[in-house]
Amino acid sequence: MRRIVILSIVGIVLLTVTVFTAALGVAGTTVSAPEVLSRQPVSGLKADGPPFNWTGSSFQPSAPEIEAMAAVLLDYETGAVLYSLNPDEILPPASLIKLLVMDAILDAVKTGKLDPQADIPIPPAAWSRNAPPRSSLMFLGPGQRASLDDLMLGLAIPSGNDAAVAAALLLDDSVEDFVLSMNRRLSSLGFEKTRMVEPSGYSLDNRTSAEEFARFSRGYIMRHPEAVEKYHSVPAFRYPRLENMLRGHHENTIYQQNFNRLLNIMPEADGLKTGTIPSFGYNLAATAQRNGRRLVSVVLGVQAESTREGNDKRARVSRELLEYGFSEYRLIDPDVPVPGTVRLYGAEYREVPLYIDAAWAREGESFVIPAAFKEKIEAELRVVRRLRGPIPAGAELGRLVYSVHGEELFSVPVRSISGAEQAAWWKQLADCALIVWERVQGEKIPPRVNEYLNPLFTPVVPDQPRN
What's the whole-number mean pLDDT along residues 291-312? Predict the structure, then answer.
């Protein structure tokens, strides 16, 4: 009998308060927050993302033994690291540094600083006869004229040290000024371990890491995708040709094959750049595209007894790394569930919409997972749906969790799009009465937002069935 009386009183109070607030025309339990932010982040915090580095993960597919001092394999589209070996070790890039020079030239063409149709000057400092001993050469010299394409091919294929000097002097008054400008640019791009002391790669004091050079190579292709086919995949280079010789000047045309032997043993390979310092080892920044998917690899310090063995071995090592990436990883378009809303009590809005704080989720981008998990990955929203009190914009109210067989791969935050201020007293009273009524109906009392955001508090979230 007492229970019936209590329920009747609660019902009468709830009905009275609801009628009172409705009469005022501002019943807070029917007002939703506007989507004022168009699902853009407002928290100022860096959002989590898919695994951008699978190395060392318990999910990483069995990796090959790579015979190099350092190596990194990247997925081109997403930037995910599929393999790494000593990725941060600082090592000499050798002629890989010429890729930085080519990047600077192509940037200058894009900005109009250089005319791609004009001949380039060939100052004495760039003549092959003035290059250091045992240099790889394009064979620039007096009595010649060369186009910008000649210069770029001379950097990409025979890896001419003379071409590197000519390129530096094309962009700056001196090689020293060019080096300073390149290092400033590297710093501005966030490369801390990569530094140039001279543009040919001859010096052991040039430095980079496999991770940084792989990222640079990926960015280079993104900025200049035409360069891969136009320069880096070309099998051979002839210079000086008849059209390169000024009147009255004659010399033999020199035929040089591309040092990148990967082009010969992997049909999908189409670049990128070799580097060799015999006392250190053989380097190769490589890229290949298969079924519309591109990978980028860097191997540094491959050891060999001879130049021929070194050229062949770095190609084989790179092929093994690229084949691993193509066979063991897949790009997927993830299932991104709609995050919905959070129900608020005692706040100015009844509901506030939520958004997933990850660029790839908002923009519908793909990400890379091990091939074995392609059909097994599951998406699960773990989000609080009821809260008491006001909330700030960008409050983390849950996670979108991706898992395989119940084991979490990664998760990203789910946040409130807009904030909600504390409601007027009569609205708070109405919501308190509603909470009591819902409690009688078996619902749990919703936590306050500060309780939910406290890391020691275990949020009340609905149970999620697992397959």
Answer: 96
